[in-house]
Amino acid sequence: MPSQRDDSQAQAAAPVHIAVDRAHANGTSTGIKIRARDVNVFYGDKQALFDVSLDVPEKSVTALIGPSGCGKSTFLRCINRMNDTIPGATVRGRIELDGEDVNDRSIDPVILRARVGMVFQKPNPFPKTIFENVAYGARIHGLTSSKAELEALVQTALKKAGLWGEVADRLHQPGTGLSGGQQQRLVIARAIAVSPEVILMDEPCSALDPIATARIEELIDELRNQYCIVIVTHSMAQAARVSQKTAFFHLGKLVEAGPTGEIFTNPRDSRTQDYITGRFG
Amino acid sequence: MTDAALPTDKAAFRQGLETRLKKRYAQERRFRLYGQLAITLALGFLVLLVGRIALQGYSTFIDYQITQSIYVDPAKVDRSDIGGANFDLLVADQMLARLGEKDDEFGETSGKMMDIISNDFGFQLLKMVKADPTLIGKTVKVTGPVKADAALYYKGELKRSTPEEERKLDNRQLTWLDRMQASGAVSKGFNFGFLTKSDSTEPEQAGVLGAVVGSAMMLLVTAVLAVPIGVLAATYLEEFAPKNRWTDLIEVNINNLAAVPSIVYGLLGLAVFINWLHVPRSSPLVGGLVLALMALPTVIIATRSALKAVPPSIREAALGVGASRTQTVFHHVLPLAMPGVMTGAILSLAHALGETAPLLMIGMISFVPGVPEGFTGAATTLPVQVFIWENASERAFHERTAAAILVLLAFMIVMNLAAILLRRRFERRW
Fold first, then answer.
1. Chain B closest-CA separation from residue A110 CA (Å)
2. 3-state DSSP call for residue B408?
3. Residue closest to B296 by CA, chosen among B339, B237, B248
4. Is A148 exposed, middle or buried (0-12, 13-18, 19+ CB in 10 A)?
5. DSSP letters of A217-276?
6. Residue B313 is nearest to which of A111, A124, A140, comparing CB atoms?
7. Alpha helices, DSSP H only, in chain A?
8. How far apart are CA B127 and CA B142, in angstroms?
9. Which helix (H) or strand (E) holds A56?
10. Which of B243, B317, B322 sits opposite A141 (nearest CB)?
11. Is the separation of the CB atoms in B313 and A121 below 8 Å?
């Protein structure tokens, strides 16, 4: 045990920390959807992220893993600027979505969040009907012009989220009456209904039982053909199952990123090795 | 190495655990007992309070009416000057005639009769004859209450056993009352007049309608001003305002304002609304303005705590699908906070309803013998009416004080029921 601690300290003390992002180097991705460069996040005086640079490929699943408090959720929330809503949070560095800096003045956070949907740890449907939950985003963005169009959109979104079969006959019942797994898929349908390009998922299965989790994982696998998905997860097994690329965070730093297979079978950093083999975290 | 601190003697350890467990249960039982005692005590006081008021006030709702046929004597009622006729004397004379008595030359006997029957008879007769002068020379039936003192005799509160010089009615008057009752001329009934009439100098004709309407109008002004302003102010402070020294200062001041004695708001109202802005004094408008100022901090505090109680996940959900901050607040957060907001608003309105002191400062203590004529007309309110009657010298007003309190309590119960219903309605939206 002591040797491992020394090892990580030695790494952290290195003067220049270079996160190795192997995916791009290996040319395994089709294109880069999100490009983060030297992202630093502060909550008041406390720095939560240190110089994170990461490329997120288009139409695939990228998993962010790491122990609690390592900054993976913080990084996720930078992408759709949810950190703006936290008093005292400041973000430095550059995060590009299709080459555009999301923190640029010309980017409106409201439009950005329509392009970058988000699914949270705890299912948080609105206390309204299932239909209203899915229709809400379309309504506020004015995506549909008629009732029939809206109904079609809600149906499509629910079908994509794999929930249509279960709720088709009770669209006008409260969304909060569904089971946890159904609620989480409802929330995914709500995000899909706004036609996002990216879907961020912050530990979407941590409040679910294994069966509901399996259902969500299947869904993520189906969705990756259409969307760029970034998922934060505590479960390494889940990261291994659903993602094509994995990034390992530790103490606010990106330690290592690369194709999931390589990260799990052949990590370069000893901290990654220790974490994925369950020796700390 | 930490094992040393753990108990080694398992049996002693278990026994100690059991003794402590007994203590813990005893503590729990004691606490429950204290709680039950406290609730019993509180309920006891409530029953005592309401019971006493009800006992004192219920007799107000019983009144004694006499129906009398009155011949409108053309010799006494001048067709050209109907208002100049002494209808009271006309009524008294015929009441005496019914008892087989006659007025003396000084009018003392008829005066005694006028002391036991309400001058409401005279008013009614005057109204009828004015509306239809052909009644002169005919006989009309008039029903009216006995005077408050006579009613007290019928209710047994004024007793014949009291020495004659110490009571308001003498033996002769009591005998008349006995004879009238024995002849079946007096009918006992529910005092609808108390609910359909306004304040009067005569207790038997005094009612609470004017005060109830005045209170309702004033509360309407208060609600229309305090609730929207308070809710919007709280929403801004809680959801939009930056958290800095200024907003902290504002928050502290709002909390302090909620604790300012109500009479200070009365002084403020007097200085600002009446002396400076010239809002008519004693009107529901100025009363409502003052009470709105008073209710505002409470509404703001209640709304803020209701907003704080809305889970942040709902805000994140709305922001996450691209709702703007305003949309997030008005589509999701505020509707969810609504039950709490409603409860706070109704509680502060109920508090405003019972407020007396600031209204005294803005002149609502005046005698108002009618329903207020609009929001700028003179008005009185229920608690002020209670205050006025409590200070009246006539004994019959004291039972009316208690009855007015009962009406005030009923008003509050209705308001609280409305609050519960509103809450349910909003809660049904999950």
1. 5
2. helix
3. B237
4. exposed
5. HHHHHHHTTTSEEEEE-S-HHHHHHH-SEEEEEETTEEEEEEEHHHHHHS-SSHHHHHHH
6. A124
7. 2-12, 22-26, 72-79, 109-115, 130-141, 147-160, 164-167, 180-192, 210-223, 236-242, 260-265, 270-276
8. 11
9. strand A46-57
10. B322
11. no
- Our CA angle for B217, B221, B223, nearest 5°, is 110
Residues B131, B399: Cα–Cα separation, whole Å: 35
Q: Where are the beta strands (DSSP E) in B308-428?
A: none
The DSSP call for residue B154 is H
pTM score, whole prediction: 0.81
Residues of B in contact with A128 (CB under 8 A): 429-430
Q: Do the beta carbons of residue A144 and residue A150 sit within 8 Å?
A: yes
Would you give per-residue pLDDT tens digits along chain B (430 residues)?
556 677 778 888 888 888 889 999 999 999 999 999 999 999 999 999 999 999 888 888 888 888 888 888 888 887 788 878 888 888 888 888 888 888 887 888 888 888 888 888 888 888 888 888 888 888 888 888 888 888 888 888 888 888 888 888 888 888 888 888 888 888 888 888 888 888 888 888 888 999 999 999 999 999 999 999 999 999 999 988 888 899 999 999 999 998 899 999 999 999 999 899 988 888 899 999 999 999 999 999 999 999 999 988 899 999 988 888 899 999 999 999 988 898 889 889 998 998 888 998 888 887 888 888 888 888 889 999 999 898 887 888 888 899 999 999 999 999 888 888 888 887 755 4
Beta bridge partners of B79: none
Cα B70 to Cα B87: distance, rounded to the nearest angstrom: 10
What would the two tokens of residue A189 be? 């349908």
A117 touches chain B (CB under 8 A): yes
Cβ atoms of residues A139 and A221 within 8 Å: no
Residue A71's CB is within 10 A of a number of other CB atoms, namely 23
Let me know: does B122 contact B35? Beta carbons within 8 Å. Answer: no
**Distance of alpha carbon A12 from alpha carbon A27, whole angstroms:** 28
The whole-angstrom separation of Cα A133 and Cα A151 is 12
Strands A228-232 and A61-65, how do they pair? Answer: parallel
How many CB atoms sit inside 10 A of residue B56's CB? 17
Nearest CA in chain A to B332: A126
Q: Are A81 and A102 in contact (CB under 8 A)?
A: yes
Question: Residue A256 in contact with residue A270, Cβ under 8 Å?
Answer: no
Token pair of A53 as six digits: 């640079």
Distance CA A67, CA B381 (A): 66
Residue B89 is given by DSSP the state H
Tell me if A228 sits within 8 A of A244, measured CB to CB. no
Contact B316/A128, CB-based, under 8 Å?
A: no
Under DSSP, is residue B118 helix (H, G, I), strand (E, B) or coil?
A: coil
Exposed/middle/buried for A4, CB within 10 Å: 0-12, 13-18, 19+?
A: middle
Chain A: closest CA distance from residue B324 (Å): 6
d(CA A159, CA A88): 40
Give CA–CA dist B257/B299, Å, rounded. 12
Pairs across A and B, CB distance < 8 A = 69
DSSP B173-237: HHHHHHHHHHTT-EEEEE-THHHH----SSGGG--SHHHHHHHHHHHHHHHHHHHHHHHHHHHII
